Each structure stands twice: as C-alpha cells, then as structure tokens.
UniProtKB/TrEMBL annotation, chain A:
Single GO cellular component term: plasma membrane
Keyword Disulfide bond on entry: no
Regions that span the bilayer: 256-285, 306-330, 350-371, 404-422, 428-451, 480-500, 706-728, 760-784, 796-815
Matches recorded under InterPro entries: ABC3_permease_C, Membrane_comp_ABC_pdt
Domain ABC3 transporter permease C-terminal: 264-383, 710-825
Listed name of the protein: Putative ABC transport system permease protein
Topology class, membrane: Multi-pass membrane protein
Subcellular location: Cell membrane
Coiled-coil segments: none
UniProtKB/TrEMBL annotation, chain B:
Keyword ATP-binding found: yes
UniProt cross-references to SUPFAM superfamilies, sorted A to Z: P-loop containing nucleoside triphosphate hydrolases
Pfam families named in the record: ABC_tran (PF00005)
Organism field: Stackebrandtia albiflava
UniProt GO cellular component terms: membrane protein complex; plasma membrane
Name under which the protein is recorded: Putative ABC transport system ATP-binding protein
Residue ranges annotated for the ABC transporter domain, each copy included: 17-254
Higher taxonomy: Bacteria, Bacillati, Actinomycetota, Actinomycetes, Glycomycetales
Domain of life per record: Bacteria
PANTHER family, A to Z: ABC TRANSPORTER RELATED (PTHR24220:SF685), IMPORT ATP-BINDING PROTEIN (PTHR24220)
Molecular function GO terms recorded: ATP binding; ATP hydrolysis activity; transmembrane transporter activity
Keyword set, alphabetical order: ATP-binding, Nucleotide-binding, Transport
Length: 832, 256
C-alpha cells in the first residue's frame, strides 16, 4: 500500500459512524454478489451426480440445446433422442468394451392396492460393466426399486400391470432391490416396446448410449475418440453424466444461470449505488480534515489516494462478514428455489471459493471507483478554497448534474414506457421494471437541484409567524441540499423499486388470471399420472353421462427460432396443446381464423406476437418441440388472450405425432360427480373441480414470481439498512450545528422538533419522488394489460412501504439527535 | 473590586453576575481535576470584563459556569437576581436566551441561514418579534448593512464575527459572553472587533465578559480578572498590555 495508509487509518478511526455505513454497504453488497456467484458457479459446474448411469464410463447423447448467438443457448426440457444404430458406430471405436441404449419412459404401476406413477428403464444399462446389481429381469418380469415397491405396495412374486404410451402389460416382480437409480427396470425388448421405441415417431431411437470402456483403455482418450467420430453428439464423462441422466439437473443449472443473469444487473447497480452513497457521506464528513491535509501540502493525488486507501481498508473489514453471509444466504436461497421447483430435488449448490473471490474483487473495484469520485471535489480544490468550503457543503450542486439527471430520467421513462405502448405482454413488464433503476440513478444526479428548488419554494411560502422548527427544517434542507437529497434518493429508490417489483408481478398475474377467468369454462380437471393419457381414455370420459365435453391437453413448451440482425436467436414459450375442439371449453378470443381447425400440424398465435413476428393465418411457423423435433405447423387462428394462454396454442396432434407423448390432463365440462365416479374405477387418474392444469390454472403468483419477490425483499432490506446507516452518519455529524442552536437559545426539545420536521420533509419528498418514478409506469402497465390505470396488487403495499421507509428514517435521524443533545453544547461546539 | 468608571452607567453599583464559592471538578479517569476552586466573583453591569490566564487556568470553565452552560459542583451563581444553580436544563436554556448572549472563536453561524436570519435566530427560538428599530440600529453598529442576505460562507472572518456579536446582542441580553472572540482573526480585524465590543459597552451600556489569553485584547477591557489554577489570582483595572503579558508570563512559569 502507500505511506498515506497510516493517516488513513487514523482518520478512519475518528469517523466511525460514517464508516459503519460503508462497512454495511460493502458487506451487504459482497453478500449479494457472493450469493449470485454461488448460483453462477452451480449453474456452470454443478449438477446432480449420476446414479443410474454411474456404472457407465462414458455417455453419448444428443444436444439438449438450441444454439443462439451471443445469448445463453436455450435448453430443451424434454429428452432429445438419438438413433439407436449410433451404438454400432460407438461399438467400433477402439477402447469401447460394450455399449447399451438407455431409455426412460413414464409408466404407471397398478397393483391390487392402487396405481402409482414412476419411470421405467432398461436393465441393460445397470448391468453394464463388471459388477451389475441383482439379476436381469426376463421378458415378463420387472425389477422395482425399493422406494417404488413400497409406494405401490408390491413385493417380489407379485403380478403388476404396467401402462405406458398406450401399451399395457402384466408382468411379475422378479426382485425388489436397492438400486442406484429410482423406478422400475425391464428387459431391453420390453422397455423398448413400452417406451414406444419400436414403432411410431420415436421408433429406433434411444435417450442415450452408455459406454463401458475396456479396462486396458483410457476413459478420456476413448471419450475423445468418440467425440471425434460423432461431433454433433454430446460425449460426457465424470460428473457431467448427471445431466444426461437427470434432465432436470441441466434445467436447474440453466435456471440458476438465468436467475443470476437477471438478478446480477439490478444487484450490481444497487450495490454500486449504496456503496457510493455511503462513501460520499463518509467523505463529506471528513472534508475538513481533507482540506487541512491539502493546506499542509498534500497533493490532490495524495488526498485521492488517502481516501481510496481508507475506503479500501474499511471495505476489507466488511468483506469477510459479507462473503460469509453470502454463502449462508445462497444455501437458504437454494432451498427456496428447490421449494419453488426451479431446482431439482437433491441438486446440491457448489460452494467453491470463486464466488467469494469474485465478490471481494468486484467490491474493492466498486469501492475504489466510488471513493475516487467522492474524493474528486475535495481533492480538486485549491487548499484555501478547501479550507473555506470545509464547513459548508458545496453551496450549489453542479449544474451538469441536474441536466444529466433529468436526461437519464427522461430516457429511462421512455425506454420503460415504449414497449408498454407497443407490446402488452411479459416483455413489457420486464422492461417497465428494469427501467426504474436507471431512473433512480437520474434522480440521484438531479436530486440536489430538485431539493433546492422544492425547499426554495417552501421557504418563500413559509408563514412569518410559523413555528421555528419548521422554519429551521426548511432552511436546513435547502442549505444542505446535497445531504438532504442523498437520503431522499435512497429512500425513494427503496420505495419505487418495491412498488415496481411487486406491482409488476401482481399486475401481470392479475392479467393472466383475468384472461383465464374470462376464457375458460371448465367444471373439472382430470390429471393423468405420468402423462400417459390416450384417445381411449378421453373417449371413455366423453361417453360418461353428464359430461358435455372432454378436451385432452398436453402442457409443454416450444422454441421459436428467429433471426435478429443476422444473428440466430430463439425464444422458448410454454404451450398448451389441445387434443380436441376446445371451443366448447375455452374461448381464446379469436380475432382471425378458426380454432376448430386446430388439429394435426397446426398452431394458433396470439395477436401481439403475430403482429411483432408478422405472422398471419395460413403461414407456417418453424418451431422446435420440447424434445428438439423441428416442426412447421400451419397457423390456423389468431387470438387475443395472449396473457392468459401464452403466445402459442398448439394442437396436441403436433406433439403426439412427433414425440409419442401422451395427454397429461383432460378438461371436462359437465357433471363433476359423474367424472369422479368414473375416476374411481379408472387407474392412474385423479379429478379436481375447476381448472388446475399447469399453465391454465388460477393459482396467483407462480413460483418464480415468488422468487422474484424474495429477491426484491432482500434488496429492499439492503437498501433500507444502507439508508438507515447513512442517515445516522449524516445526523451524527451535525452535533456542532445542534450545539450552536442550543447556545443561541434553542431548547433540546426545539432541536428534536426541528429534526422531526426535517425527517418529515425527507420522507415526504422521498415518497413523492419514489411514487412519481414508479406509479405512472405501473399505471400504464395496468392500462396496457388490464384496461384500467390503477395497478393491481395488495392495496396495503404502498402505504406499508411508505410506513416502512418512515420507520427507518425517523429513528435513524432522531436517535443520533437525542444522543448529540445529551452531551453539553460547549463540548460539541469545541469539537465542531 | 472597585473600578473607577468613565461612563454614565452606574458603574460598580449593579451586579450582572455573581459567583459565590463556585467549585467545578471533573472526573478524568480515576483522578479528579479541579477546574474552579472556590471562586468568588462579581461582574458589574455596563462594564467590559476580561478573564485572562494561561491554558488550563479555568477561564473557559468559569465562562461556561457563569453563563449557565455548565453547572458547578458546588457554590451559587446568580445572573442578575436569579440564582441559576439548581435550575433544570430547559429552564436554564430559557433564561440564557432571554438574558445571555454568546460569541465564540469560530463564529458558529448557521451555514444554511442568511446573515440576517442568523442574527434574528435567537428571537425566533424564543418566539419573540424583532424590535425593528433596535435591529436597524444594531446592524448599523456592527456594520453589516447590505450584507444581510449573504450566507456566512460569503463573508470575511471579521464580518462573520461581527454578525455573531449582533446575534448575541439581538435579544438585548443582560450579559454577552465572548470566548476568545479574536482568536481566529488577524491583528487588524481583531482590533476592529475589539473596538466594536468597546463601543457596545460605552455607547449601549452592554455588559460583556470576554475570555482571552491575548494580553492586547484583555487590555481593551475595563477590568481584567487573571486566573491561575482554578483561582482568581488578580483583578486589575485597565492594566496595560505589557503589564498583563508580564503577569501572564510569570504565571506560566508557575510563579504565581
């Protein structure tokens, strides 16, 4: 470090309250960066370790990704199969001892005591290599893992019925065993039949090939040779085999990276903001010492170094705590993600050293940049100017701040609002929410000038005979506009961000619910275990007395690849695919075309998407199904209710014909009791009144919306902690001012009253600014999505957030005032 | 203490402040420091009294106690005929703002207020209406006419100290206490401020008590009280600066 470090340390000790704020801001920031880092590290290198495939040395599978330029590749949620005859190629590669095809398929197991859903596999994969467990099942036999056996109530020797993909077979349980993977295991031929790999769209495919490498050969070298021979396939060894076995593991990793990417921007902006705010309070508190240093011959450069060193020192004190808290909260956050279903059960987070190191480095970088800019004014002045200005804050905020601030606010408003006007939909919500943060930066810049303008007006309108506490409060806020604006900006940030985050979510959720409520008329939902429903099941249901309509449904997703400025892009959408005429149950709000034509290779598109993508009825879309199958369905209808039903609705035929998937849900209109009675005698189905299908139900906030809210709450807490600390530091610094007031005749009660009025002014202006930045955006959002300008969401949200902001500001300003008033004014004046 | 007065004020007859047997002790860690040791003092009305002494002699403590900012450990203090020892903080504050004004070395003006607002601040705090004729006179006396809308930071040190004096006088206090009022000023400005103090006493009959360690400043006073080790070592009427400097030098060598 530098020779200025020693004075830096002494000055740091003398200005504790300001530095506590810096420590908290840095520690909180480091915690958030660390937690985000753990998400990224787990997303990049984590995953569920292989279980069923752990005996394989190498796995060969198809890529699960749709490649994009410059963006994260889109992960396909369903298994992308590969031709089974690739096994012959692999078997011929030197070093390969044996190859087996792996298939997994949803299956229901019916015993005397009921039906449970599970996953079926071929035994061959387990038996690969030297020591396979147990005995291979014969043609009419099945091996159950002990967990499944317990759930199904089956024991060795029992006869069970298996149903999968339209096939039904009765087999004997040959063995119940503790297996490295869960589910049931069949002979290869039985598995191939039940998995639908001997006929139909998936004929002649496997999910993956597992390879046993000869004892004499090197695994890595063999894997490289397979890679060279089959460059378009994914060849995995070690822990990455887990992703091949557990698709959810890969999906979880993609979720983590996506979350970290979307959080990262806001988090880093806010951390930078808070650290800069805390540092500027701390540096302002030391302006006098810095001025004296300049006067005794320190160069501007040395002063900047001093401040930078001091801030670094303080940051180093906060970093270990922050990093530790970051790791702890990452663990907690991981549990939240598992609960929300965004992370697969049993997927451990990776707690490597990298996130901590990254947090330390970025924190130090942010601190040094913030310190350098905070020090600029103090270091740039001539020594005499510095001493003269050391006791009053800079009288007038620099004019460029106002201009730049207003420009940024206007720009952020424009970028936030434009998509709202052009495209009502989820993208609009996202752009509105993210547009508020730069608006806050603009407010931070323009704040002091705005505070001067507002308090200047107030000052002129004060009644001459009014209370002196109000008079002083207004004059102080005006004279110390920079100090006042610092508090206001951050409080406004807390308020505005909360309003936007929460109302953004709830308004969208409300829009979705409203469109679904208007568009869906369903009496009961039948859920088919394992997604194995077929036409026979639907026909049986339709024939029930009292049932007027039964529409089967597959909940899936499609990827829409497109080109933007010559670059490959892809967007993934959740899709409801209907297996029969849906118009009896669902009104999509058709604006063009005919929903009754939604059979075969067809889709319907919502009007906003159709407009943006320039699609109309009769066009063919090039889409990729959830398992990677490319399809070109015809657009047969355009509908209005895009919020409720998503941008694309498909014919279930499109999915079943290309992937062999079964229906997972049947929507029913008619007598619910009749449906219930039918379900009692039909294995593998369950009935609920109303709509409870994924993607169509009215379940309020989705898990990822909850996760967003939790992240917002954490950010709010961090911001409020920071602003509380800054206000305490700024108020503590005013001891001299309070002492002078008391010496010229103010009673302690008058000083307290003055601070209460100042706090009221700060809170009032913060509330106005925070709401001004957030409510118009939310109103437009409400107008765009719901047709009325008041945002949806809990009505207590704004009052509660305002109360919370005040609950932080009042004690943060009043408690240090009380403490300052306890000491004798003579001492305080001497110190000041 | 007898002083031959040259003004028409009833010199030496009325008492502005009276200290009887005032002791002030501080605890400093595990030892007790006696800042004032049984001090008896009478400050006459309409006089300019200086309190002098080496560092640590107790002169600032004397000022703080006499003005009601600090409470003595024992003894009684009267401002006019009101005993302030034993009063509560709020009552003492009220008494101070009615009857006592302060001037400090570092001016201590409120940076966020204009000079005019700074001067009238004590009246506002006491919820009193300014007496405009008096205010006009006062501002003329301190020579700040035309500067009332400026901020303290826009004024020179001498101007700020004159504004501080005007603020101390605006409520027409019985006594003005000044703590090293010229300590931060250059020689010429200091002389101007001291002249102003003198005129306030001679023309307006104001009672002023000034603590200083500067013999030249103390020599401007009617009476100079010299302190040493928490006691009053001497009370001198109109001593010369040389004599005071000599006295101070002896005290500082420890030969009281």
């Amino acid at each position: 470090m530098t020779p200025m470090l020693v004075p830096a340390w002494h000055m740091a000790r003398a200005r504790l309250s300001g530095l506590v704020a810096v420590v908290c801001a840095v520690a909180g920031g480091a915690a958030m960066v660390t937690a985000t880092g753990v998400m990224v590290e787990t997303g990049v290198a984590g995953g569920v370790p292989p279980q069923r495939l752990s005996a394989a040395d190498v796995t060969v599978s198809a890529s699960q990704y749709v490649v994009q330029d410059e963006e994260f590749d889109v992960l396909l949620p369903d298994r992308v199969p590969l031709p089974a005859d690739v096994a012959e190629v692999v078997a011929g590669i030197p070093g390969v001892a044996a190859v087996a095809g792996d298939v997994s398929f949803p299956v229901t197991v019916t015993t005397g005591s009921g039906t449970v859903a599970s996953t079926g596999h071929a035994w061959e994969v387990l038996a690969l290599g030297a020591a396979g467990p147990g005995t291979s099942p014969g043609e009419d036999e099945v091996v159950l893992d002990d967990d499944l056996a317990a759930r199904a109530g089956a024991a060795a020797g029992d006869t069970v019925t298996l149903r999968a993909g339209g096939h039904e077979t009765t087999v004997m349980v040959s063995e119940v065993a503790a297996l490295p993977g869960t589910g049931l295991y069949l002979s290869s031929s039985a598995a191939t039949t039940l998995a639908g790999r001997d006929a139909g769209p998936r004929s002649g495919t496997v999910d993956a090939l597992v390879v046993d490498v000869a004892a004499s050969a090197d695994v890595a070298a063999t894997a490289d040779r397979i890679r060279a021979a089959l460059p378009e396939l994914v060849v995995a060894t070690g822990a990455t085999r887990g992703d091949v076995e557990h698709l959810a593991s890969g999906a979880g990793r993609a979720t983590l990276i996506g979350l970290a990417a979307s959080m990262g921007g806001t988090v880093s902006l806010i951390v930078g903001f808070m650290v800069a705010a805390a540092l500027s309070v701390s540096v302002a508190g030391q302006r006098r010492e810095l001025a004296l240093l300049r006067a005794v011959g320190a160069t501007p450069r040395q002063v900047r170094r001093l401040i930078a060193d001091q801030c670094t020192l303080v940051a180093l004190a906060g970093l270990p705590v922050g990093v530790a808290v970051g790791y702890l909260s990452a663990e907690w956050f991981g549990e939240l993600l598992s609960w929300a279903g965004l992370l697969p059960e049993g997927m451990p987070l990776r707690f490597g050293p990298l996130p901590g190191v990254a947090a330390v480095l970025t924190s130090l970088l942010v601190v040094r940049i913030a310190a350098a800019s905070a020090a600029l004014r103090a270091s740039g002045m001539s020594p005499t100017e510095a001493v003269a200005e050391s006791k009053v804050e800079p009288r007038r905020p620099a004019p460029w701040r106002l201009r730049a601030g207003l420009a940024i606010m206007a720009l952020s408003a424009a970028t936030g609002l434009t998509p709202l006007l052009l495209l009502p939909g989820e993208a609009a919500v996202v752009s509105a929410v993210t547009g508020v943060v730069p608006g806050m930066v603009g407010l931070a810049l323009a704040g002091p000038s705005l505070v001067r303008a507002v308090t200047g007006r107030l000052r002129r309108r004060l009644r001459p005979g009014g209370p002196v506490s109000v008079w002083l409060a207004v004059h102080n806020s005006h004279g110390y506009a920079l100090r006042t604006a610092g508090g206001i900006t951050v409080l406004a940030l807390a308020l505005g961000l909360t309003v936007v985050q929460v109302h953004g979510q709830t308004t969208m959720s409300e829009a979705v619910s409203a469109e679904r409520a208007a568009g869906i008329d369903v009496d009961a939902t039948v859920t088919v275990a394992g997604g194995t429903g077929d036409r026979t099941l639907v026909d049986a249901l339709s024939d029930r007395p009292g049932v007027t309509a039964a529409v089967p449904l597959i909940h899936t997703s499609v990827v829409w690849p497109y080109e933007q400025d010559g670059k490959a892009r892809a967007e993934q959408y959740p899709v409801s695919a209907f297996g029969a005429d849906l118009s009896a149950l669902i009104d999509l709000g058709i604006v063009d075309g005919d929903p009754r034509r939604l059979t075969g290779d067809t889709v319907a598109v919502d009007a906003a998407t159709a407009w943006v993508e320039d699609v109309s009825v009769g066009d063919r879309l090039d889409l990729i199904l959830a398992d990677g199958t490319p399809v070109s369905p015809e657009v047969v209808a355009v509908y209005r209710r895009g919020m409720g039903f998503g941008p694309i609705v498909a014919s279930a035929d499109l999915i079943t014909a290309h992937t062999g998937r079964g229906y997972d849900t049947v929507l029913v209109a008619g007598d619910v009791e009749s449906v219930r009675r039918w379900a009692e005698s039909t294995p593998g189905v369950s009935v609920r009144a109303g709509v409870s299908a994924a993607g169509l139900g009215d379940d309020g906030l989705t898990p990822d919306q909850w996760v967003n809210l939790v992240v917002s709450a954490a950010l709010l807490g961090y911001v409020l902690l920071g602003v509380g600390n800054s206000l305490v530091a700024a108020t503590t610094r005013r001891r001299g001012e309070f002492a002078v007031l008391r010496l010229v005749g103010a009673t302690p009660a008058q000083v307290r009253r003055m601070i209460r009025r100042e706090t009221a002014l700060v809170c009032g202006m913060a509330v106005v600014a925070g709401l001004a930045l957030s409510v118009p955006v939310m109103s437009l959002l409400g107008w765009g999505l719901l047709g009325h300008p008041w945002p949806q969401g809990p009505p207590w949200l704004i009052p509660a957030t305002v109360a919370l902001v005040c609950a932080v500001a009042y004690p943060a300003m009043l408690l240090p005032t009380r403490r300052a008033l306890r000491s004798s004014p003579t001492v305080a004046v001497a110190v000041a | 203490m007898t002083v031959s007065g040259t003004t028409e004020a009833p010199a030496g007859t009325a008492t502005a402040i009276r200290l009887d047997g005032v002791c002030r002790r501080y605890r400093d860690g595990d030892r007790t420091v006696t800042a004032l040791d049984a001090v008896d003092l009478r400050i006459p009305v309409g006089r300019f009294t200086a309190v002098m002494g080496p560092s640590g002699s107790g002169k600032s403590t004397l000022l703080h106690c006499a003005s009601g900012l600090d409470t003595p450990t024992s003894g009684t203090i009267r401002i006019g005929d009101t005993e302030i020892t034993g009063m509560r903080e709020t009552a003492r504050t009220r008494l101070r703002r009615e009857r006592v004004g302060f001037v400090f070395q570092s001016y201590n003006l409120m940076p966020s207020l204009t000079i005019g607002d700074n001067i009238t601040l004590p009246l506002r705090l006491a919820d009193r209406r300014p007496d405009h004729a008096w205010l006009h006179d006062l501002i003329g006396h301190v020579g700040l006419r035309g500067l009332l809308n400026r901020r303290p930071s826009e004024l020179s040190g001498g101007q700020q100290q004159r504004a501080a004096l005007a603020r101390a006088l605006v409520a027409r206090p019985d006594v003005v206490f000044a703590d090293e009022p010229t300590g931060a000023l250059d020689l010429r400005t200091a002389a101007e401020v001291l002249d102003l103090f003198g005129r306030m006493v001679s023309e307006l009959g104001q009672t002023i008590v000034m603590v200083t360690h500067d013999p030249v400043a103390a020599a401007r006073a009617d009476v100079t009280v010299v302190m040493s080790d928490g006691r009053i070592a001497d009370t001198l009427a109109r001593p010369s600066a040389e004599r005071l400097a000599h006295r101070l030098a002896r005290l500082e060598r420890g030969a009281a």
